[in-house]
Amino acid sequence: MQKNALAVLMVVVGLIGGTFIGWGVSAVLIPAGSQTIFIEITGSTTCEPVITTCSEKFMMINPNVDISVTGTGSGSGIADTISSLNDIGMSSRNIKASENTTAGGILVDYQFAKDGIAVIIDADHPDAAWLELNGLTMEEVFKIYNGTYTHWINISGTLSDETIDCYTRPDGSGTRATFEELVTFGGDELGDDAGYQTSVTGYTQVSSNSLMVQGVSGNNYGFGYCGLGYIDATVIAVPVDGVTPSVATILDNSYPISRALHLLTNGPATGWVQAFLDYIYGPYGQEVVAEEGFIRLWF
Length: 299
Prior knowledge:
Largest sheet: 9 strands, mixed
Number of helices: 12
CATH architecture of the largest domain: 3-Layer(aba) Sandwich
């Protein structure tokens, strides 16, 4: 993955030091003939709202460009990029070394925002006050999801004896893959734990961050996870290892369950694809990142 990391660094430095032809300060010059340019983007449902809004704004100033954005899941978006079925893939998890190998080692990873994955409970959870004050340790989150802790009282004798109703995302979700990678105990990742692999098949599965919030908020004893940008008044983000997820704690890396959001191309971006990436990296694109509840990298 070192090649990808270097590619990201080169893009960032090049954009900061160069001219952002897609910033949106003025329309980009339309090529001779005013031909329509089609850009296909697929992948992460977490990235989808930011990229959709950016594409709408970009198309307003560049009417010859037609951008299609479809949320199909990170795994699907990466697979599409490898197979050249899209122009840009969206992912809310890191690219696997095996995926880059399949692509011939030429995937380029453009990190455009940061996000934290919050563990959430219903705002009306009977033990909400205790959980918000005391939080959970990473070990406790791990043991809830691997089936060791099945009732709230397993966490503390002062809590309810009701069952912990776990929610999860589908296999292939970037949010799920990142959660399984970042939630660890004893040096082991949650996704590699045999107890988790058995237990997760019985959890309530939802297809997006919004539906995760909706599901947990409708269940007094529900427990789930979602991107920071999707937290609303109906749920509570529980502190993990004494740290509450926020813009500040994610940027300073003190919140342990955090990640970057990625755009991927099969080889270095060129032409209008590069212009659109420039727009996302520029002040207008980064403003959209913040408006959608994610964490901008600059500006």
